[in-house]
């Protein structure tokens, strides 16, 4: 027989008799003076915090790190050109702007970033979000002009002014990037790095999987060689598939054959790189091989003229001088820029923390916001579009021996969409572990596919917040039993090794008690403890035993209530009443 007793205190008694708050010895004015006081020590700490390169560059071990950094930089940089060109097309701007976006941000992140392994640059999800915004603000319909071949306007046909359209789209993308940089920088100064916690892993993985669907659908017309309109907004995927289907009879067979051959070759290269990554000194540069081979084939066989294949065309050489963005476009882009800023930061910080944990160092989420903000803001004056970190490219940098951000100077994008589609494997795993996490994944995926990436993200975040409310309002509770030979207490309904103490019930709730769950808490407590035991003892004919609470303990994160069952004795009369 166990007997546990403790005095029962109320809040008034605790505050007035047991606990007294410590008196602060400093006034508000003194704290403000201390905060704004400048000293050489505080100035040095601020400089090291704002420019993390100062903490590692002076002590950079040249003999130990330089060779591996060079090899890693070359390995990552060799896949830079084709992916930079490709993701500029996703962003609906001329391909050369993908190269600009792969140079300036990388250089800036070296000075301001805190991660040693992430590789910044263009990224498929961000590029696709930018492309949807750019097409919405500068659709093809705005740039049709009468053909010069018409006579007095009677037989004139409208033609698309590609040059004017591309100029406008670049302006929109650049202004959007400027605003994204400002938002990220301000959020970093205000210490808003915690916002990433609201983008849970299932939400991000469902969202990026949906983005992969958008990317594949948007590229179908290029794979088939058909001309279709580019759509934006809700139901973009459905409209795009419908447009491609309506033009399927115009498929260019030569384009399909060449595209499928490239896909098979790239898949084999990626598979070999994954299988033999420990044996290969550098990954097989499948992308650059494809670009060189197809460029040579296009030139030698006149694919554009003889087979009507679309080609990128001439790419300007050199870098552009700095230009002031067209700030008059800002009002229409504020909401979009917030979404791009948050998605870009959440992907970057999650990847940075993964590598930091693996290699035993730390990253500063607020400084990462500042770094990405400066990369986007300053680079936008050189005609770039918004960037973030790429998982697959960062994995190349890490797996080939990269030690510091020296390697990032040559690094460019390589995003493996196959890796994103593998995230469908999350569904059975989440089904077994957490139905709520699975619901977040599915909502993020379905909403982003049907409504577009911007509205889809908003719906997914709202749903994730609702699940937090649901979890606290409907906490999981259990009766705990001791696992023999250990000090562990587990749910007796879930684990057969957990057994209860005779005469004692241990009730556990995984949430603190507040107004939204108090009624459910009391109901569940009665159901699992009081009523269960009453029914049990009544069934056994032990009516002389009644339950009463003799011990109660409350914690911030969870609640335990131990209920002991003893002889009714002198209070049997109350039971009879």
Describe the structure.
- The protein is an alpha+beta fold.
- About 55% of the residues lie in helices and about 10% in strands.
- It contains 24 helices and 10 strands.
- The protein has helices at about 10-20, 30-35, 40-50, 55, 60-75, 80-90, 95-100, 105-110, 125-135, 160-190, 200-225, 235-245, 255-275, 285-300, 305, 335-360, 365-380, 390-400, 415-420, 425-435, 435-450, 455-475, 520-540, 570-575; strands at about 120, 145, 160, 390, 475-485, 490, 500, 505-510, 545-555, 560-565.
- Strands 5, 6, 7, 8, 9 and 10 form a 6-stranded antiparallel β-sheet that branches. The protein has a two-stranded antiparallel sheet with strand order 1-4. Strands 2-3 form a two-stranded antiparallel sheet.
- A hairpin with a 4-residue loop joins β9 and β10.
- The longest helix has 28 residues, at about 160-190.
- The model is unreliable at about 405-415 and about 545-575 (pLDDT under 50).
Distance between the termini: 27 Å
Q: How much helix, percentage-wise, in residues?
A: 55-70%
Provide the β-strand percentage band: 5-15%
The number of distinct β-strands equals: 10
What Rg do the Cα atoms give? 31 Å
Secondary-structure-derived class: alpha+beta
Unreliable spans = 404-416, 543-577
From the spread of the alpha carbons, the general shape counts as globular
For the largest beta-sheet, the strand count, sense and barrel status come to:
6 strands, antiparallel
What is the count of helical runs? 24
